Amino acid sequence: MTTDLNTVPAMPPGERARVPLSQRLQGLGGNTRQYGIFGALVVIILLFQVLTDGKLLLANNVASLFQQNAYVMILAIGMVMVIVAGHIDLSVGSVVAFVGGVVAVSIRDLDVPWVLAILIGLALGALVGAWQGFWIAYVGIPAFIVTLGGMLLFRGLALVIVGETVAGLPASFISISKGSLPNALGFVSNADVVTLLVGTLAFVGLLVSQLRARRSLRKHNLHMEASGLFVAKLVLVAAGIAILTVILSFSAGGTPIVLVLVGVLVVVYSFVMGRTVFGRHVYAIGGNRAAATLSGVNTRKVDFWIFVNIGVLAAVAAVVTTARAGAAIAAAGQNYELDAIAACFIGGAAVTGGVGRVAGAIVGALIMGVLNMGLSIMAVDPAWQMAIKGLVLLLAVAFDLINKRRAGS
């Protein structure tokens, strides 16, 4: 089972001064990897900003970045839970096509209101997850095999249901992916006030949560980041949120609706993985399944609900994908599972399980999104884009394994 270094008792000030620098740096634990991932994202953004002659961070391009990669972020949130528990899911791309087809057919051919069609799609995603979770958790078939079969099964069902492109979906449904928050407060110097307000609220919420977490650690005499490092982290985060907010406020529509959706999911699932019994059980199972079982964790139940959860999130991604395309396509979702898996590993998830964070998966998805957009702006051949992304994934996993070997030695 992985060790959470935040549970290490804090040393008295006099003793902490005698701790070697290398040991103090190790005290940061998994945070060092997270800082490194975030730093890599910043470097990649700056690199492509230079290589694209400043086009990457144009307001409309930044908004498009989130709209085009929302499906990766949504799937990565569910996939990181699967990977942390020591499993893999190869079926999410096919589930996206299958559920998207059902939602589109329900809206266009069956005259179902699009809100109800979305609820039907979410329920269908839960059923798909329950189907696969049953075989994995209670029958004992490896997730790789079950989801490989699911990839073929649900792709075939998508072809049967959709057949040809199902278009003619209502504009209100399409706005889920292509639309922005209504500009109800007007503009200030051509900047959307609603976007500025959303960015401010996002930072305030993050600040409050960080201060509460730090107060809790101090109350229980647990290890905390150094005050200087904590303040520096908040300053950098504030700068990042401020820059993103200002850029989006000058985009054509302001804050994309899908960005708000992804933000809500990140907050909810970060809480689930970090502050709930279920989240601790997921990490425990991935760290050492036998020890978790001996500790009283119902591993079958946890595995089952992990796959129900990713089925629901695949349905959410299906709605976003269908809305962005304005139609259901049987070939939708091709390689989505690979994008989500790559985002998780680039974001710090361990191949062996037990390690991974929702925030890291989101940063990994953004790294892939920036690579895609930057290379597209530079008119790089799609074949080379795939090769570059594959190389980045390989390097990320190699870096993780090398770090583990060094830690072990």
If you had to describe this structure to a student in words, what would you say it looks like?
It is a single chain. The protein is mainly alpha-helical. It is globular and about 60 Å long. A two-stranded antiparallel sheet has the order 1-2. The model is unreliable at 1-30 (pLDDT under 50). It has helices spanning 13-16, 21-26, 31-51, 59-84, 92-108, 114-139, 143-162, 171-178, 193-219, 227-249, 257-275, 277-287, 289-294, 299-325, 336-346, 358-377, 382-408; strands spanning 187-188, 191-192. The protein has a domain at 40-179 and 293-404. Helix 4 (59-84) packs across helix 10 and helix 15 packs across helix 16 (358-377). The chain is built from 17 helices and 2 strands.
Secondary structure layout plus pairing:
Layout: H1 13-16, H2 21-26, H3 31-51, H4 59-84, H5 92-108, H6 114-139, H7 143-162, H8 171-178, E1 187-188, E2 191-192, H9 193-219, H10 227-249, H11 257-275, H12 277-287, H13 289-294, H14 299-325, H15 336-346, H16 358-377, H17 382-408
Antiparallel strand pairs: 1-2
Helix pairs in contact: 3-16, 4-10, 4-11, 4-14, 4-15, 4-16, 5-6, 5-7, 5-14, 6-7, 6-14, 8-14, 9-10, 11-12, 12-14, 15-16, 15-17
